[in-house]
């Protein structure tokens, strides 16, 4: 009986040690997951516009009998709306919960619309009139930055800060503009996979259309893989 008891005790101790070793191996495997890739989709919420006033002088006779024609003001407005958004992001944890991120995204459905009105002696006509067609622009967004997981575990709020650029295709006056980024997100992890949602403000410091700072809000959700 004593021999059987010793064998049982040894067996239990061995199982405990094996379980502990497996736990340590699992912890080490989890700790080695320093990389993340996210494939995402969402929306680029943008409302940029440019207005321009042009005065057209009409020739006419001067004098009491034939007064000159009044000047005509032509007011034009060009606006750029939002688009669907698709892209991918790579993250590398460099220290604790701090990660360096880089991403590339495309917004292929921005509508560039033009319209205007005519004004004569304070009276305007055609207010809100749009041109006969709109032009489709594609925006390429790219950049890098830092992301910090506020908490550990399977549900992780994230704060984001970075910089990058945006290039527009489809407009003669389009250019590449510098962008500052700041926002927040949320990760939900299920082991090596999970989901992530982000809301990030892309501040275009000198937008090609307006020449001013414009806020391009990116709201995205995606599938996450850790390795």
Outline type: elongated
Q: What string, H for helix and E for strand, traces the elements in order? A: HEEEEEEEEEEE
Question: What is the CATH architecture term of the domain at 33-48 and 80-114 and 133-226?
Answer: Beta Barrel
Structural class: mainly beta
Quickly name the level 1 CATH class of the domain at 33-48 and 80-114 and 133-226: Mainly Beta
Chain oligomer state: single chain
Task: Give a verbal description of the structure.
Helix content is about 15%, strand content about 65%. It is mostly beta strands and about 230 residues long. It has a domain at about 35-50 and about 80-115 and about 135-225: Porin, CATH 2.40.160.20. It contains 1 helix and 11 strands; from the N terminus they run αβββββββββββ.
């Amino acid at each position: 009986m004593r021999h059987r008891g010793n064998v049982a005790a040894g067996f239990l101790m061995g199982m405990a040690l094996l379980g502990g070793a497996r736990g340590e191996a699992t912890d080490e495997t989890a700790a080695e997951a320093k990389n993340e890739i996210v494939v995402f989709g969402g929306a680029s919420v943008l409302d940029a516009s440019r207005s321009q006033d042009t005065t057209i002088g009409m020739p006419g006779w001067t004098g009491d009998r034939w007064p000159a024609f009044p000047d005509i003001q032509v007011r034009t407005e060009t606006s750029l709306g939002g688009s669907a958004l698709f892209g991918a992001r790579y993250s590398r944890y460099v220290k604790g919960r701090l990660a360096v991120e880089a991403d590339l995204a495309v917004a292929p459905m921005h509508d560039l619309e033009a319209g205007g009105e005519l004004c004569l002696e304070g009276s305007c006509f055609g207010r809100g009139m749009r041109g006969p067609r709109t032009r489709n622009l594609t925006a390429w967004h790219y950049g890098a930055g830092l992301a910090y997981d506020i908490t550990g575990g399977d549900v992780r709020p994230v704060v984001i800060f970075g910089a990058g650029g945006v290039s527009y295709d489809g407009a003669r006056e389009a250019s590449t503009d510098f962008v500052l980024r700041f926002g927040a997100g949320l990760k939900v992890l299920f082991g090596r996979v999970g989901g992530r949602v982000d809301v990030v403000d892309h501040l275009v410091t000198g937008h090609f259309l307006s020449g001013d700072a414009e806020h391009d809000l990116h709201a995205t959700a995606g599938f996450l893989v850790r390795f």
